[in-house]
Amino acid sequence: MKKTLIFLFCFLELTHAALADRWDFLPNEPLFNPLIGDLREPQYGIVARPDQNNFDGAIGQSIELIQWQSNETTKWAWGIEGECFLQLTSTGAATYPLVVSDWYLGTYFSEKSGNFTNRLEYLHVSSHLGDSLIYTVERIIYSRESLRLTTSYDFSNNFRLYGGPCYWTHLSPDSGDPRLFFHAGAEIYTDYFRLFSGTHGRGYLTYDVKVLGEAGGVVDQTFELGLQWRWKKDSHQSIRMAAIFYSGNSEYGQFYQNPDQFWGLGIFFDP
Amino acid sequence: MNSFLKVNRFLLLFILCVSVSPLWAGPADWSFLPSSTVFKPLIGDPREPLTGVIPYLDQLCYEGQVGGTLEMVRYSPSDDTQYAWGLFASAYILLGEDGATFPMLDGDFYIGTYFSGSFGDFSIRLEALHESTHLGDSFQTIQNGTLQSFQTPLFYNPTVTYTRENANVTFSFQPTDSFRLYAGAGCWDLPLIEGVSDPIFASFGTEVYSPFWSIDNSAMRGYLTGSLQWKGDQNVLETEVQLGLQWKTSKSSNRAIRMAILYYTGDSQFGQFYNVPDSHWGLATFFDF
């Protein structure tokens, strides 16, 4: 705790001294645009899985604390993120017992130069079995930390590619599986079209893939086909509705060794 | 007709009136997904949808919360009033500490919708709110080869029907930037609270701010909040006091970082322990976005 406070104090002081008038505190928009095709990106959303009678909820966000401009073309940012992902199942009679909840807490640095943006994250995740399964499923103590580097390139406003290596710095349970894993994806957007009351919408298609060494080798793939709704084209807030297909192992830590494949209907709120 | 139904009908009528009142207002401006809310968040309320962490100073416990409010649509007539409708969601986690591990004790989830309005110094918010509570998996144990739990989750407890579905209303009065008073009331969902004698709850609170002082291009001020909540089903008064600093990009910005010392006393805010007394000091950091 003490070391962390000293680090933060030194970091802020150095940043402040070196960058004087070129910093922006609590900016309105993050430098690194969220990866909307990654279901584990900090976001608010609900995904219904009609073929499984399950519901996934996401509550979380990134908080960009500071941005600064180091030269004419390069900007940097530092922020934190926190999110909770939970899965509920329907047992009828308006009852939705909790199956599992995963909690993330992390920090990141990001950089933007022209069409390139980069983000280096340090993320802690813990996974907790839902209390509705407390008498029937034995929990595991699932706690992990990872370093994740993601490089993104915007070819245009309609097409984005991203990818990068990630490394588990801490694994519990530690099965001796490879710690290096990879994350990549693409986002494709249509042009904006007018919707009601002067608002704007655009279609989008995303593909997101994670290649992990755990559980004997896993490829987690997510496809989203949806509609993004904004008041103005340049506003950051949006609502997205999408059809989702996921295939791989469960992204919930308690079930990370179990195959998971589903179709879903999602609604997401990007603050 | 019992008193609860009377209150419930009054609330529904009130919500209906406030919801449709914009329809007979004058020329107006609509905006969608605005970046701020008409009803300013109650920063002293321990269950406002906010993001933050609270290490306890006198116990080996940590609270974490993530949450936010998304104002979907805002209606601004030309007469200095504003109306809005939005959604909110939040998640709260309570962790213990056991050496280098932090076992989960409880997780609560809130989701809801609201209508709000502002009329000069006054503002109002009407909420419909779902709350669920879940015992942490750290209570699971194995005895004689079978799974057990040190504590029975409320989900499995046939003697307790716990619900916190509710409708509530909060009135706020803020005559200056430095002072705010608010008060509210609500009622739990009747069909699920058989046996509960009093489904009404009420709240009262205040926010007091110092003048801003500048830190280069940003602004900082001190603040003191007090929050009182009375819950009829337990007949308990819950109190939280915060004394802290609020740091903003500019005086008018809605984004802020807050650090505060807080004191809480009452029954636990975490649903699994809703009837367990809880008093603690905390050192909180909040991120208001």
Spatially, the strands of the biggest sheet of chain A line up as 2-3-4-5-6-7-8-9-11-12-13-14
Low-confidence stretches of chain A: none
What is the N-to-C order of secondary-structure elements of chain A (H for helix, E for strand)? HEEEEEEEEEEEEEE
- Note the overall shape of chain B: globular
Overall CATH architecture of chain B: Beta Barrel
Reading off the top of the CATH hierarchy, the class of chain A is best stated as Mainly Beta
Question: What distance lies between the first and last C-alpha atoms of chain B, to the nearest angstrom?
Answer: 44 Å
CATH class call of chain B: Mainly Beta
Characterize the quaternary organization of these chains. Answer: heterodimer
Q: Give the largest interface.
A: A-B, 50 and 49 residues
Structural class of chain B: mainly beta
**CATH T-level fold name of chain B:** Porin
Radius of gyration of chain B, rounded? 20 Å
What does this structure look like?
- The complex is a heterodimer of chains A (271) and B (289).
- Chain A has 271 residues and is mainly beta.
- Chain A is built from 1 helix and 14 strands.
- In chain A, strands 2-3-4-5-6-7-8-9-11-12-13-14 form a 12-stranded antiparallel beta barrel.
- With 289 residues, chain B is mostly beta strands.
- Chain B has a single domain (3-288), classed as Beta Barrel (Porin).
- Helices cover 6% and strands 57% of the residues of chain B.
- Chain B is built from 1 helix and 16 strands.
- Chain B has one helix at 3-20; strands at residues 28-32, 51-55, 61-77, 81-96, 104-119, 122-135, 140-143, 146-149, 166-176, 179-188, 200-209, 213-215, 218-231, 236-248, 256-267, 277-288.
- Chain B is globular and about 70 Å long.
- The interface between A and B is large, with 50 and 49 residues.
